Amino acid sequence: MFFIFGISNGRKQLDYHQSTVCNVCGRYGSYQVFMEYMFFSLFFIPVFKWNKTYFVKTSCCETLYTIDSELGRRIAKGENLTLGEEDLHVVQRGRYFGIKRCRQCGYTTDEDFQYCPKCAQPLI
Question: Least crowded by CB within 10 Å, which of 62, 68, 75, 99?
Answer without folding.
Answer: 68
